[in-house]
Mechanosensitive ion channel (Harenicola maris), 458 residues
Amino acid sequence: MADDPSTKEQTAEQIADLTGQLTTLWGQAESLALSMVQPWRLYQLGIVVALFIVSHFAAKWLGPVFYSWVRRQEGWPKWRLRTAVVLHKRLRPIIFITLAWSLVFVMREVTWPSRSYVISLIATIATAWLVVTFVSRLIRNPFLRSVVRWGAWIYVTLYFLDILDPAADTLDGLALELGDFRLSILGLLKALAVVGVLFAIARGVSKTTENRLKNNENVSPSMQVLVIKFTQVVLYGAAFVIGLNAVGFDLTGLAVLSGAIGVGLGFGLQKVVSNLVSGIIILLDKSIKPGDVISLGDTFGWINALGARYVSVVTRNGKEYLIPNEDLITGQVVNWSHSNDYVRLDIFFGTSYSDSPHEVRRLAIEAARGVDRVLSFKPPVCHIVGFGDSSVDYILRFWISDPTGGLTNIRGGVYLALWDAFQENGISIPFPQREVRMLGDGGGLDADTSDISAKVED
């Protein structure tokens, strides 16, 4: 198939435009470099290097002094201490900027302004860098903070060097075109910047909504999680779409590409989607909510958090299990506190046949009532469940209302109360006993033993 002439002409024009932009950018960079080799510019560069060396040694001397002074301050609020720590870490650039601007003001009073141009330019860039460093501290995410900081540093440097427009034109010329869809490096950077800012705003609004919902006692925990997740999806989705539209992205051009990617991801992320849908079902039917005590297989604990992909279950020994939402939908789950927090526990024990069953039942019920966490308005009960080989077998049932406090420990407390009550009232807890009777006379036994010994000796 022959190539389309119009496509060739368009490609040639794009290459020519890009070449022209690169030439312009290189020309400005070359002009800036040549201007720096003039005698007074070289002197100023030497002065800047000297100022940097002086600020380095001054920071080494003032750093420990400033740190010791901060440690001696008592009663300072946290924000002031954090500010002091940030200033201590940035002491070298602060000293450099102070010395540079002081020198610029002095030189402008005693000589021509052009003879302090390089020093003022570097001082301006350094000041902008320092401001960016302080402002970026407001971003808590370390990775996002680094991205924003480096992006802002590059932007202010290009701006004050007066090569921002040529650099932008060059980045805009580096583009990928598929029909009507055009994606340049400049557009991509703008989209990332705008979407990042909108994501930060969406995150702040989401956190505020989450805090207000958690303080609202009229909203159930499962409904809180559902509203929070729905709010996050809406806010982040809106931030993404608005951010792309704000920088001129045509979303219709991405429809085919995103559709193909979506089909591929759909086959590869079936489990992820299944867990996501299962999580939404769990939130809607309210079968499991934060704070519930559940048993799933050998795992027993309480729900710490409901995530988009998993449920966090914390056990009594401090382990945190991340159970996929799909397992909670398809498997059998014991929810100890689904409709209410009341849980009935059973313990088994036995006493001697010589002890009165009526007295044993009375003592067992009184012992259980005296244990903390055992509910008094749901009184314990004790029943005989059988006559064993060595003991009369009983079951003691009692209720608690705080299964998150543990089950084994409350059972152990009731067993100890039973032991103390039985010891005080002379109730014995028997252990299995067996009698071994040997049939036949002694002679027969000795003869058999002799035969066995003879065989062993042979």
Remarks:
- The first helix runs from residue 5 to 35.
- The chain has a mean pLDDT of 77.
- The radius of gyration is 40 Å.
- The chain has four domains: 5-185, 186-268, 277-335, 343-425.
